[in-house]
Write a structure and sequence with these properties.
Blueprint lengths: L2 H22 L2 H22 L3 E5 L5 H10 L3 E6 L2 H10 L4 E4 L12 E7 L7 H11 E12 L4 H4 L11 H10 L2 E8 L11 E8 L1
Parallel strand pairs: 1-2, 1-4, 2-3, 4-5
Antiparallel strand pairs: 5-7, 6-7
């Protein structure tokens, strides 16, 4: 996508989520759509023993707050471009460090994080640029965990008319490889049978 078009698209998405932040917190929406993917990412972080973690496109801070409360790492950061989302995140937790910034230019020095995660937002990113920056801020051996709406999923079809793109499993592996990340795990997020139209995928990669 051309740079100008991407910037306009990002501005529209950021403005929308700043206004829609209260809806994002609805318990039904969180429980049915977002929580299963977040739970699987937290399991990856626990298994990897990650101590310095950043949640990108953190929204109202639900997952970053869960990471802090459930894993007790040394540092937890929530990063988002939407000030409306971050306002609610800051009210949610004072133990997480909340930062403003895009996924493609994270507000961190090189090699300072053990893990970078993002759930249900990757389709809005400039994906190669975001993964390249995830790689930049990771220490050697650090991990990236990304959940995406699979192309056949009901929710992903809602973005089919926009510049948002839901990558296939093969595309995700190629994107990770292109960013210098070795895929160590990839599978569909586990959900009850009745909500299978929400078809999302977890991909985990390691920085060599």
């Amino acid at each position: 996508m051309p740079t100008v078009q991407r910037r306009i698209f990002n501005d529209v998405v950021t403005g929308f989520w700043s206004l829609a932040a209260p809806l994002y917190n609805l318990p039904v929406l969180q429980s049915w759509v977002y929580r299963p993917a977040q739970t699987e990412v937290i399991a990856v972080l626990r298994e990897q023993g990650s101590r310095r973690i950043a949640d990108i496109a953190c929204g109202t801070g639900i997952m970053a707050d869960r990471i802090q409360r459930e894993l007790h790492p040394d540092e937890v950061y929530g990063v988002d471009m939407a000030e409306g989302m971050l306002a609610q995140a800051r009210a949610r937790s004072a133990a997480v460090q909340w930062l403003t910034g895009p996924a493609e230019a994270l507000p961190f020095d090189d090699g300072v994080l053990d893990a970078v995660v993002t759930t249900s937002a990757f389709h809005f990113f400039d994906q190669p640029a975001a993964l390249a920056d995830f790689h930049r801020v990771l220490r050697p051996g650090g991990v990236v965990a990304v959940t995406t709406f699979a192309p056949e999923g009901g929710l992903s079809r809602l973005t089919s008319a926009s510049p948002a793109h839901a990558p296939s499993p093969e595309e995700m592996r190629a994107l990770f490889s292109g960013a210098g990340l070795t895929v160590i795990e990839q599978h569909r997020v586990h959900r009850p049978a009745w909500i299978q139209p929400v078809a999302d995928m977890l991909t985990v990669g390691r920085k060599s």
